[in-house]
Amino acid sequence: YDKAGEYSEILKVTDSKGKVDYDFTVVQVFDKENPEKRIPAIHAGFHPTLGIKPGDAVTFHVRTFHGDTGNEIWDFGDGTPKLSVKSDSIPENPSQGKYAETLHSFSDPGHYIVKVERSNEHGYTATAHLHIVVNK
Predict the structure, then answer these.
(1) Is 103 helix (H, G, I), strand (E, B) or coil?
(2) Distance between CA 24 and CA 129 in Å, rounded?
């Protein structure tokens, strides 16, 4: 990696019958030259997780830690415009603060890889991915 930050890597698996699934892992890269500059960490989730159909409202939550500036930017992977939200981050007490919440619906059935990112005051970015299955 060229720059410090929190990266989300994607593994896509397709079986012999064409069924697809995804898994994600997080890679945190620290700046050796500036270890006092914390990288952001991001946590995202959604519900419902099963039985989503086109037009159903899906609730997305996100919160970034160690990032007091900027907003989280959602890319829902369906061609709709990106959406900006801002979660609460309290550096003195990370257990306090709130997740940002937004609703989104997908027009068509399919597999969607949703991405959310936020950069902190040091220019380090945290990225998370979610796999959303929209049924017919």
Answers:
(1) strand
(2) 7
- Per-residue confidence of the chain (136 residues) as pLDDT tens digits? 999 999 999 999 999 999 999 999 999 999 999 988 989 999 999 999 999 999 999 999 999 988 778 999 999 999 999 999 999 876 667 677 789 999 999 999 999 999 999 999 999 999 999 999 999 9
Residue bearing tokens 């929190």: 6
Look up the pTM and report it.
Answer: 0.92
How far apart are the C-alpha atoms of 77 and 79, rounded to whole Å? 6
- Given the structure tokens 């069924």, which residue do they identify? 19
Task: Please provide residue 11's backbone torsions phi and psi, each rounded to the nearest 5 degrees.
Answer: -115, 120
The C-alpha atoms of residue 43 and residue 135 are separated, in whole angstroms, by 25
Max Cα-Cα span within the chain: 51
E strand map for 15-124 = 20-29, 41-47, 58-65, 72-75, 83-85, 100-104, 110-119
